[in-house]
């Protein structure tokens, strides 16, 4: 039963049914045609008998006082009945115009229940008559058939009129139907076998390969073989190629997730120890703040703020187990002061690269100061590393202005520009780095923090003359 419910069994059964249905559609007209041919053969045989009898009577005429009819003898032994039986009819008459002439009387006096004119019948009426005889035969019924004989066989009149019992017609049609049924079964089984083998080879087996590959891959995505789709052009080949591509992408994604999980575990361990180191650094920075050296006293508060940010980031990462950013605590922040602080952290005095700030003193942004600092710092550090790593470019210009209820900050460097591969995966973690050894996290973090404010970070332009990023921070409602 399981085989019958499979696709192969279903295809075999449906093929047999459809072939049988086609045979039925062919069988009904064939049955009507067989009935007509059978009756016309009786008419042709009767016409031959009529030719023979007429010729015999012309050759051996009866005397005037002779009353003996050589054809009017016993039904079982007379020549008349032997001729009628050879033609398989009950009586024969010839129609010539409006006149009718009996050739062999036979059972002419038997009551005729229905008359069929083969020359006047339509195809529909022939089909109905044939199906009626086969489905509901009446053996004792006598029918009368009228038809024109073949003109090449010297017809004796305009038409031949015969009578016969329906039993012999029903028997012949039943035998014909059985032969057709047997032939149909053979044809349907042979066709079904050929169709089954063809479909099984071209459809079922390739589909089975796809299903087996899917099952194996589901059980062990990391170890299972990638499906080999081949080079065909059918829909199944296309499905196989899509399955192969999907398996490759899923495996790559799983490998990346495994790598990220391992990386996350390592980061958690590093964060734990780094927080302790930063705590010690804060204690030392507090001592530096009490120093009498003017340079140290000016630098110490900035160092403490940087340490506070690093400690806070490590604490949040350890608390939540991941680096999801909390909602920004937004307030008014003077942009020039914050951007200059970023410049001092990223571009120290004496470095080969510098940052110019073109920002009004009174321009403010409604943002979380720590998160906005990280956004600009990540973008500025990326620019500094690109220029220092290639030796091309030495200046980063930061401009800011108000536009449509928010602040727009543009960072433009004169570096070598970004490669095409980096632009295609821009802002994607671990994939968008433009330099060897980079992780691509800087842009990813910057955009994530900006979108947390309802804004965004976009690449405006990147050519061989430099690169421009834009940060938009909308005001609160």
Mean pLDDT: 79
Total of domains:
3
Query: What is the strand content?
Result: 15-25%
User: Looking across the biggest beta sheet, what order are the strands in?
Assistant: 2-1-5-4-3
Tell me the helix content.
55-70%
Distance between the termini: 69 Å
**SSE-based structural type:** alpha+beta
How many DSSP H or I helices?
11
Instruction: Tell me about the largest β-sheet.
Output: 5 strands, mixed
**Shape descriptor:** rod-shaped
The radius of gyration over CA amounts to 52 Å
Low-pLDDT regions? 62-76
What is the number of E strands?
Answer: 12
Multimeric organization: single chain
- Following the backbone from N to C, one meets helices and strands in this order, namely HHHEEEHEEHHHEHEEHEEHHEE
Describe the structure.
By secondary structure, the protein is an alpha+beta fold. It has three domains: 188 residues, no CATH class; 99 residues, Helix Hairpins (Orthogonal Bundle), CATH 1.10.287; 147 residues, Histidine kinase-like ATPase, C-terminal domain (Heat Shock Protein 90). Helices cover 56% and strands 16% of the residues. The chain contains eleven helices and twelve strands. The radius of gyration is 52 Å and the shape is rod-shaped.
């Amino acid at each position: 039963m399981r085989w019958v419910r499979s696709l192969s069994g279903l295809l075999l059964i449906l093929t047999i049914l459809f072939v049988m249905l086609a045979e039925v559609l062919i069988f009904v007209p064939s049955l009507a045609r067989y009935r007509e041919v059978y009756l016309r053969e009786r008419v042709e045989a009767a016409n031959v008998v009529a030719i023979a009898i007429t010729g015999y009577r012309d050759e051996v005429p009866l005397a005037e006082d002779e009353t003996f009819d050589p054809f009017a003898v016993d039904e079982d032994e007379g020549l008349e009945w032997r001729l009628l039986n050879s033609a398989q009819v009950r009586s024969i008459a010839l129609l010539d115009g409006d006149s009718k002439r009996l050739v062999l009387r036979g059972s002419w006096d038997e009551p005729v229940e229905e008359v069929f004119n083969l020359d006047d019948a339509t195809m529909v009426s022939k089909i109905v008559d044939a199906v009626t005889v086969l489905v509901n035969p009446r053996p004792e019924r006598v029918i009368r058939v009228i038809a024109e004989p073949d003109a090449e066989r010297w017809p004796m009149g305009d038409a031949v009129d015969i009578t016969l019992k329906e039993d012999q017609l029903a028997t012949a049609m039943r035998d014909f139907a059985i032969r057709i049924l047997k032939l149909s079964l053979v044809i349907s089984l042979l066709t079904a076998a050929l169709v089954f083998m063809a479909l099984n080879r071209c459809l079922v087996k390739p589909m089975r390969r796809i299903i087996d590959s899917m099952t194996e891959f589901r059980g062990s995505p990391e170890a299972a073989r990638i499906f080999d789709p081949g080079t065909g052009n059918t829909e199944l080949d296309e499905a196989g190629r899509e399955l192969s591509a999907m398996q490759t992408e899923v495996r790559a994604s799983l490998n990346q997730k495994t790598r990220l999980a391992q990386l996350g575990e390592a980061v958690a361990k590093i964060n734990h120890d780094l927080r302790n180191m930063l705590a010690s650094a804060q204690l030392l920075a507090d001592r530096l703040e009490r120093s009498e050296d003017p340079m140290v006293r000016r630098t110490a508060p900035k160092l403490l703020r940087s340490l506070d940010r690093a400690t806070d980031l490590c604490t949040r990462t350890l608390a939540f187990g991941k680096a999801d950013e909390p909602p920004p605590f937004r307030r008014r922040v003077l942009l020039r002061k914050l951007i200059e602080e970023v410049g001092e952290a990223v571009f120290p005095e004496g470095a080969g690269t510098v940052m110019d700030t073109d920002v009004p003193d009174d321009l403010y942004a409604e943002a979380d100061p720590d998160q906005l600092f990280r956004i600009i710092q990540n973008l500025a550090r990326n620019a500094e590393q690109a220029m220092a790593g290639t030796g091309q470019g030495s200046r980063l210009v930061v401009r800011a202005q108000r536009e449509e209820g928010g602040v727009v900050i543009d960072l433009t460097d004169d570096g070598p520009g970004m490669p095409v591969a980096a632009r295609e995966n821009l802002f994607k973690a671990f994939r968008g780095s433009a330099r060897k050894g980079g992780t691509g996290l800087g842009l990813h973090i910057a955009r994530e923090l900006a979108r947390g404010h309802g804004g965004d970070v976009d690449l405006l332009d990147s050519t061989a003359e430099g690169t421009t990023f834009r940060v938009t921070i909308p005001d609160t409602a």
